[in-house]
Amino acid sequence: MTQTRSHSSTAPRADTGHGAGPGRRWLRGTLSVVCGTALFAALTACAAGVPLVTGPPSAPTSPPVVAPSAEPTTSPTVEPEPSPTPTESPEPDPTPMTLSCTDLVPLEVLYNFNPNYGTDPNYSPAAGSEAAQMAAAGGLACGWINQSSSEEIEIAVAKLDDAALGAAYDKAIADSTPVPLFGMEGFFTTDGDVGVAQAFTPEYWLVARSTAFVEATDAQDLVNTALKNLPAS
Fold first, then answer.
1. Residue 209 and residue 190: Cα distance in Å, rounded?
2. Stated pTM of the model
3. What is the DSSP string of the chain?
4. Count of domains for the chain
5. Of the candidates 210, 225, 130, 220, which has an alpha carbon nearest to the alpha carbon of residue 175?
6. What are phi and psi of 196, to 5 degrees?
7. Tell me, what CATH number does 209's domain have?
8. Could you tell me the residue range of the domain that residue 117 belongs to?
């Protein structure tokens, strides 16, 4: 008796998902390794404080553009205006004396003082003396000499402005002793062995010097005669 055998189809069955072939198992293993490695690297970076870059790299930052600074402005130099030069008040011109030495002290008065005195032709006021100052101010300086002893008498007078007269008066007060013998205001002092008499009026300053003036009374007659002969204003 012949036996009939049934043969099953040899066509492969479709994968229903219930079983994994060798290829799929290899792909799954590879993905597992890659994911595990990436996860391990991310965790390591976080632990080390390195920021995790998740997006595309940012474009390089351009350096800031520095605007050129404006040119410094130079203020124009202001030249100071020159201050006006103060105008000095001109000093008053000295008033020249118009009388002579003989007019100031006549010869008879000089003779009464001492007959040995006469005019000294070589007389000249000493530099820096009161007589030199008076002569420079337009005043008069006179000298007489004793023909026997060569002793000299010097009398000088000048008409001064108020400032110069006041300065001479203040110096006389500081350096001399007031005496009531010579006109309105009189002073006397000694400079070594030379007696010095000074007299002041509202306009004139008079000085008489001589070794013959030991005291103020020795110069009294000559000084008062000279004051009396001064021209009135």
1. 9
2. 0.61
3. -PPP------SPPPP-SSS--HHHHHHHHHHHHHHHHHHHHHHHHHHTTPPPP-SPPPPPPPPPPPPPPPPPPPPPP-PPPPPPPPPPPPPPPPB---S-HHHHS-HHHHHHH-TTEEE-TT--PPTTSHHHHHHHTT-EEEEEEETTT--EEEEEEEE--HHHHHHHHHHHHHHSEEETTSSSEEEEEEETTEEEEEEE-SSEEEEEEETT-SSHHHHHHHHHHHHHTSPP-
4. 1
5. 130
6. -125, 115
7. 3.40.1000
8. 102-228
Residues sharing a CB contact under 8 Å with residue 149, sequence separation 6 or more, in sequence order: 116
- Residue 19 inside a domain? The answer is no
Q: What is the pLDDT of residues 163-217, one digit of tens each?
A: 999 999 999 999 999 999 998 899 999 999 999 999 999 999 999 999 999 999 9
pLDDT digit string (tens) for 43-102? 444 344 444 444 455 555 555 555 555 555 555 565 666 655 544 434 445 567 889 999
Q: Is residue 185 part of a domain?
A: yes
Q: What is the pLDDT of residue 9?
A: 41
